[in-house]
Specification:
Layout: H1 4-9, H2 11-15, E1 20-24, E2 30-33, H3 35-41, H4 45-48, H5 53-56, H6 61-69, E3 85-90, E4 96-105, E5 115-121, H7 123-135, E6 137-138, E7 141-142, H8 146-159, E8 165-168, H9 175-184, E9 193-197, H10 206-211, E10 212-213, E11 225-226, H11 228-231, E12 236-240, H12 247-259, E13 261-262, E14 271-272, E15 276-281, H13 285-290, H14 296-302, E16 305-308, H15 319-333, E17 340-341, H16 343-351, H17 357-371, E18 376-377, H18 384-387, H19 413-416, H20 421-434, H21 439-446, H22 450-457, H23 461-466
Parallel strand pairs: 8-15, 8-16, 9-12, 12-15, 17-18
Antiparallel strand pairs: 1-2, 1-5, 3-4, 4-5, 6-7, 10-11, 13-14
Helix pairs in contact: 7-15, 8-9, 15-17, 20-21, 21-22
Length: 477
């Protein structure tokens, strides 16, 4: 049986652990705490013993649930997997720490000890994930997949030129972000960047918006006004949804591209403009040309340098990176602590087809943030069309897992009997491939912490480079 005297007997062992440990009685009062936990919560043992655990983590989901139920809400039921809660805790130094916590029931208790709360400091892991996201970005675009790396390379090459660019891709993939990255990495970066959404312009106003007009040129033109071409002089003009402009505007746009000058409506004198043109569309312009809906000469004038932004279903390995970036933006918008998704939530996100691409992913995450009352986003908090698929997504590890569903080897055995470096490297690569690059999921499959996975990845330069780990980072040692 577990006796209170055991806590004293094993205090040296408990204080040597990296994880924090708090022992609670059935009334959720703290009986003892190890040294790592006092450091994480920035309070000494004397101030914590006898205190209610929910008060220490006030405001977290588990603390509120604990107060309602009257027992520790993290203790798993018989046969249930451990319940993990991520929280942000502000210490006495004013800094917020990212902590992961779970509970273990103490069996056959006769000395008042009911359970142990385990704490892990994930602050460094959060920082490392942010570094990885920054490494795999170009402007507002995010992705480490081969198709995105190819897009980055082509974008940077196109940015060095002054030729017209046609960006294609489905709605919601981020064509506007690609256009902005082109401008920001070009010699025109210091000049104006003007975006025109052609689909939002009524046909009778397209020419006036693009080319400008003189005073009295038409009813309502009370004053002269420059068009978007003049406004973008010396910089870049994005013609978004170019496939929506009228045939008459297509003719005048072609002339501007050829002559590099505009004539305002109601005037006769041309005005020289120095503008780099980027056009974007989700429509198949080549098909529109064959159907007589889009001018062939204008199409080739615009498509000097073509760029294609891939859909999200073409690069599912980028979903964890995108989720991290989008949640960081949402946390700032809603003034929330560091937001994270539960592993089962990430599996749902990775399994979904995303017809609306990155825009739909952002909307789904925003929906979940609004529905949640803590930093951890759960599957049931996703929009209905995703939450309904959660039951159809198999768990990452089950008793009958097939070789394709779960790597057969786990790195934990290397601590007892070290394997060759090549075997360890292959095991890590296998886990990362099965987890689609998600390091948290790969670490779980390997039976190690994410911090340990980062350290071990850093030993293999080619594998580390592939998955965004800096081998020279001393903080990983």
């Amino acid at each position: 049986m577990f006796q209170m005297s055991n806590l004293t007997m094993y205090s040296g062992f408990l204080d040597a652990l990296e994880e924090g440990v708090l022992f609670l009685d059935s009334g959720r009062r703290i009986l003892a705490i190890n040294l790592a936990a006092t450091r994480m919560v920035q309070q000494n043992e004397a101030a914590l013993v006898g205190r209610l655990c929910p008060a220490l983590f006030a405001g977290s989901v588990c603390a509120r649930s604990c107060e309602v139920r009257g027992v520790c809400s993290l203790t798993p039921a018989q046969g249930e997997d451990r319940k993990v809660q991520d929280i942000q805790l502000k210490g006495a130094d004013g800094k917020e720490r990212s902590l992961r916590m779970w509970a273990m029931l103490i069996p056959e208790n006769s000395a008042g000890v009911y359970c142990a709360i385990i704490l892990r400091d994930c602050s460094r892991e959060v920082e490392l994930e942010a570094e990885v996201r920054e490494q795999w970005q170009l402007g507002g675009l995010t992705g480490r997949s081969p198709v995105m790396q190819d897009l980055y390379q082509k974008t940077l090459r196109a940015a060095a030129s002054d030729a017209s660019v046609l960006i294609t891709g489905e709605s919601g993939v981020g064509k506007e972000l690609a256009a902005r990255a082109l401008h920001d990495n070009s010699p025109r970066a210091a000049g104006p960047y003007v975006a025109v959404h052609c689909a939002a312009l009524p046909e009778n106003l397209q020419e006036a918006e693009l080319f400008g007009h003189s005073r009295g040129a038409f009813s309502g033109a009370a004053a002269a006004r420059m068009g978007r071409f003049e406004a973008a002089n010396g910089g870049t003009l994005l013609l978004d949804e170019i496939g929506e402009i009228s045939p008459s505007t297509q003719v005048k746009l072609l002339r501007v591209l050829q002559e590099r000058e505009v004539v305002r409506i109601g005037e006769n004198e041309p005005r020289k403009v120095d503008v780099r043109i980027i056009a974007a569309t989700h429509r198949d312009l080549a098909t529109m040309v064959r159907q007589g809906l889009f001018r062939e000469d204008l199409y080739y004038r615009l498509r000097v340098l073509p760029l294609h932004v891939p859909s999200l279903r073409e690069r599912p390995e980028d979903i964890p990176l995108l989720v991290g970036k989008l949640l960081s933006n949402l946390a700032k918008r809603y003034e929330r602590s560091q937001l994270r998704v539960a592993p089962e939530t990430m599996r749902v996100l990775e399994a979904y087809d995303w017809p609306g691409n990155a825009r739909q992913l952002f909307n789904a995450l925003e929906y979940a943030v609004v529905q949640s009352d803590g930093p951890m986003l759960l599957p049931e908090q996703l929009p209905p069309e995703l939450a309904a698929t959660a039951t159809q997504v198999p768990p990452a590890a089950t008793a009958g897992a097939t070789p394709d569903a779960l790597p057969a080897r786990r790195l934990t055995r290397y601590y007892a009997a070290p394997a060759s470096a090549e075997e360890e490297k292959n095991t890590i690569r296998e886990a990362l491939q099965h987890a689609r690059g998600n390091k948290a999921e790969a670490a779980r499959r390997l039976g190690i912490s994410r911090t340990t996975l980062w350290k071990r990845l850093a030993r293999f330069q080619d594998l580390a480079a592939q998955y965004g780990v800096k081998t020279g980072n001393q903080d990983m040692e």
